[in-house]
Amino acid sequence: MKKVISESALQARIIQLANTINQIENHNETPVVFVGILNGAFMFFSDLVKYIKFPIEIDFVRVKSYDGQNRKEIKFTKDLETDINGKNIYLVDDIIDSGHTMKFLIDHFKERGAKNVTPVTTILKENLVIQDALYILKYPQNSPWFVGYGMDHEDGTCRNIETILELDGK
Fold first, then answer.
1. Residue 97 is a catalytic residue
2. φ, ψ for residue 49 (rounded to 5)?
3. Contact at 8 Å (CB) between 83 and 91?
4. Claim: this prediction has a pTM higher than 0.85
5. For the segment 87-119, what is each residue's pLDDT rounded down to a tens digit?
6. Counting C-beta atoms within 10 Å of the first and last residue's C-beta, which end of the chain has fewer, N or C?
7. Annotated catalytic residue, options 67, 97, 107, 155
8. Distance of alpha carbon 161 from alpha carbon 46, whole angstroms
9. Pair type for strands 116-125 and 164-166
10. How far apart are CA 148 and CA 109, in angstroms?
């Protein structure tokens, strides 16, 4: 495994993203909800919202779209409990890979009346579905599998590593 970003550089980039969001929402009267996508986003989500300088609501969703590294049908295993009608949503995930899961969630939240839905992710892999997102790192679609900082190995381990590692041979 190879470290792709130091812990200090990761935290500095999170502060930059939070400052960008703070500027976007500065003097905006529209309520804001930060939605973390479980399980992968939990570390990033927690670190990010610490630097948000305006009142927010927080909620979580959990969807299943992978079996190991194989894609399958997207299903909710935990849906929102917060009313998002007329609110700006920041949808926080660990990685946007193909973009299909994020697109599914964006469409779902817009159907439920969200005013705006902005994806925020630790890693954005280049894809044809989601090109406009706030992110820490960007990689080509054929890049290796990543673990750490909330992202897991096929066996469910490695989420607790405090930075992002690239797996060798994937």
1. yes
2. -65, -20
3. no
4. yes
5. 999 999 999 988 999 999 999 999 999 999 999
6. C
7. 97
8. 15
9. unpaired
10. 28
